[in-house]
């Protein structure tokens, strides 16, 4: 939603038009603001609305027309942990991808990859892992205003990190009914269980007997890692053994959520859980953030 539309955001409406094979339905709906700051021209909002059965088209209606909203049916295939990756844009570090996909698979994770663009060889590699059941590749649409000059509306300037918060919330809603836990991270964030042989068992230990916990926040500890430039020299074991803690952390952590208790999320942990819920911070484990890449021949 654009904040400079001439209407105060508190009274702006979201109007949705739904169609199926036999009828259509127009409805206005309230919404919740997701973006917690005013630094961007466009902010992310969350809305729920009941539409028609067997819906074929969903459109967002404005004063001067309508825009079709692409949608997919949610997944019902049970998964222990879904790893929602932030949208990848002009991505070329296949080494980070290989490292992440094998670590998360090893401990029970499944990757949902939001892709804007990447080099062709990396895309071909991703497709092979998708075929093997390690991940799902999902095209992430870039916001575009084809008839408006960038000096007036520029999505790269006015939108937060390729609409990252919307991607995370989209991923949450896709797997809300099928995943036991969901996390929202970047490709250079790695979580390795320390107290259990799988993600689910570790999360259950952390939460233990605590009631009404919506999510667990893990710190991000910065690491340096040696990375081979060429595929013939790449070794997962060598990359793992080269990890060196830089004795520093990112200012904000990453969350692992119980999807039953949240409906949307921002790019960092914020109190977006349902009423009566809470969260805890883990002191026993942290995400490995691949902060510094040291290239080796």
Largest sheet: number of strands, sense, barrel closure: 9 strands, mixed
Query: How many structural domains does the protein architecture include?
Result: 2
Number of helices: 6
CATH topology of the largest domain, which one? Spore Coat Polysaccharide Biosynthesis Protein SpsA, Chain A
**Could you tell me how far the N terminus lies from the C terminus, measured between alpha carbons in angstroms?**
47 Å
Q: Give the radius of gyration.
A: 20 Å
Q: Which CATH-level-2 architecture of the largest domain? A: Alpha-Beta Complex
**Weakly predicted, low-confidence segments:** none
Overall body shape: globular
Helix/strand order, N-terminal first: EEEEEEEHEHEHHEEHEHEEE
Overall mean pLDDT = 90
Number of strands: 15
Describe the structure.
Its EC number is 2.4.1.-. This is Glycosyltransferase family 92 protein. Keywords: Glycosyltransferase, Membrane, Transferase, Transmembrane, Transmembrane helix. GO terms for molecular function: glycosyltransferase activity. This protein has 297 residues and is of the alpha/beta class. The chain is 19% helix and 34% strand. It has six helices and 15 strands. Strands 7, 8, 9, 10, 11, 12, 13, 14 and 15 form a nine-stranded mixed sheet that branches. Strands 2-1-5-6 form a four-stranded antiparallel sheet, with no helix packed on it. The protein starts with 13 loop residues before the first strand and ends with a strand.
């Amino acid at each position: 939603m654009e904040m400079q539309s001439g209407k105060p955001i508190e009274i702006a409406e979201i109007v949705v038009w739904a169609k199926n094979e036999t009828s259509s339905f127009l409805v206005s709906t309230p919404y919740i603001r997701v973006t917690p700051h005013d630094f961007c021209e466009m902010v992310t909002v969350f809305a729920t609305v009941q539409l028609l059965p067997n819906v074929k088209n969903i459109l967002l209606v404005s004063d001067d027309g309508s825009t079709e909203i692409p949608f997919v049916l949610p997944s019902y295939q049970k998964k222990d942990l879904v790893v929602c990756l932030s949208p990848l844009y002009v991505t070329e570090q296949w080494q980070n991808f290989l490292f992440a996909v094998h670590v998360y698979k090893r401990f029970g994770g499944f990757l949902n990859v939001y892709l804007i663009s990447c080099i062709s060889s990396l895309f071909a590699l991703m497709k092979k892992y998708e075929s093997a059941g390690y991940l799902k590749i999902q095209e992430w649409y870039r916001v575009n205003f084809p008839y408006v000059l960038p000096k007036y509306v520029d999505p790269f300037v006015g939108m937060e990190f390729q609409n990252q918060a919307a991607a995370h919330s989209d991923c949450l809603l896709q797997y809300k009914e099928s995943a036991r836990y969901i996390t929202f991270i970047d490709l250079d964030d790695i979580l390795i269980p320390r107290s259990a042989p799988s993600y689910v068992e570790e999360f259950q230990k952390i939460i233990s007997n605590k009631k009404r916990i919506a999510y667990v926040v893990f710190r991000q500890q910065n690491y340096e890692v040696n990375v081979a430039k060429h595929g013939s020299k790449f070794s997962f074991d060598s990359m793992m053994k080269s990890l060196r803690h830089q004795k520093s952390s990112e200012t904000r952590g990453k969350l692992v959520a119980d999807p039953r208790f949240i409906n949307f999320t921002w790019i960092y942990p914020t109190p977006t859980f349902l009423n009566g819920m809470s969260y805890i911070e883990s002191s026993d484990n942290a995400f490995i953030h691949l902060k510094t890449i040291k290239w080796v021949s």
